[in-house]
Design brief:
It contains 12 helices and 15 strands. With 293 residues, the chain is of the alpha/beta class. This is SDR family oxidoreductase.
Length: 293
């Protein structure tokens, strides 16, 4: 009976979107919170229940399905990506319309909001300059949530996230296909974070993020994209990708991949350590690769 009372008394956490990172978050929060996960896929309900969550079927693309989420929880983690077209994030706009007052919300954004920075190293004070619609949708989402937070007296933390890696999230298929990479002269700096560390960062932000604060959820790696591919190739005894100048490479890769290869930046993460108190499990990509070699 005591256990039943304790369970009922847990505060609620609402999670929107529960892919790989969300599933890694669940073990970190389910003992402390009654976790309610919004999914648009009814077939995922059994999996989510088995992971300790309470699934609710709703669709951020369908505002009429969201009414029951209003005031359901005052701690919210927004992991759902924008829709795939347009410059506005309609999903986040639909969500903001039903969010409660005086809540705590952690939003998972992207480092792509900065656009190409010519390899510069910078902190969270740098202005956004999105160069494609995908990043523009993220900037729109951040803006919408900031306006909601100011209006409602809520605490918002924005985590800008780079390329996510893990043991099962490495570019092995790309390497096996022999997809080329940029020549050293044209190569770009990339940023990285391990999926487990990102889950931990999101939980830390629930507790310790300052209001209306942006955090770079990045590890300490400082690698160019080709160096990353080479390091993974060495670990798995695969051929390193051939290197081509940008003028030739753009004829062989998808427009989305080319857009990633057109942006170079090095994000600093002092706020992550000093304000959120995060101690990364994987300080660099190489730290994970060493465990796999």
């Amino acid at each position: 009976m005591n256990n039943k009372v304790k369970k009922i008394g847990k505060p609620r956490l609402l999670m929107l979107g529960c892919g790989d990172v969300g599933m890694r978050m669940l073990p970190l929060v389910r003992e402390r919170f009654r976790v309610i996960v919004v999914t648009s896929k009814p077939e995922r309900c059994e999996e989510l229940r088995a992971a300790g969550a309470i699934p609710i079927v709703a669709d951020l693309d369908q505002p009429a399905s969201l009414g029951r989420l209003a005031r359901l929880a005052h701690t919210i983690v927004h992991l759902a990506p924008p829709q795939s077209a347009g410059e506005k994030d309609r999903r986040t706009r639909n969500l903001a319309a039903i969010l409660p007052d005086r809540a705590t919300l952690v939003y998972i954004s992207t480092t792509g909001v900065y656009g190409d920075c010519g390899g510069a190293s910078f902190d969270e004070t740098r202005a956004t300059r999105p160069t494609n619609a995908r990043a523009q949708r993220r900037v729109d989402a951040e803006s919408v949530l900031r306006a909601w937070a100011r209006r409602s007296g809520s605490r918002l933390a924005i985590l800008r996230v780079p390329g996510i890696y893990a043991k099962d999230r490495l570019p092995l298929e790309r390497l096996q296909k022999g997809t080329p990479a940029l020549s050293a002269e044209d190569d770009v700096y990339t940023n990285h974070i391990h999926a487990d560390d990102l889950a931990m960062i999101a939980v830390a932000a629930i507790d310790r993020a300052r209001p209306l604060r942006v955090y770079h959820a990045v590890d300490n790696s400082e690698m160019k994209m080709g160096e990353y591919f080479d390091a993974v190739a060495r670990t798995f005894n695969l051929p390193s990708p051939p290197r081509l100048p940008r003028s030739e490479l753009q004829q062989q890769v998808s427009p989305m991949m080319l857009s990633f290869m057109s942006e170079s930046r090095r994000l600093r993460n002092e706020r992550l350590h000093n304000e959120l108190g995060v101690r990364l499990r994987y300080q660099t990509v190489e730290a994970l690769l060493k465990t796999l070699s």
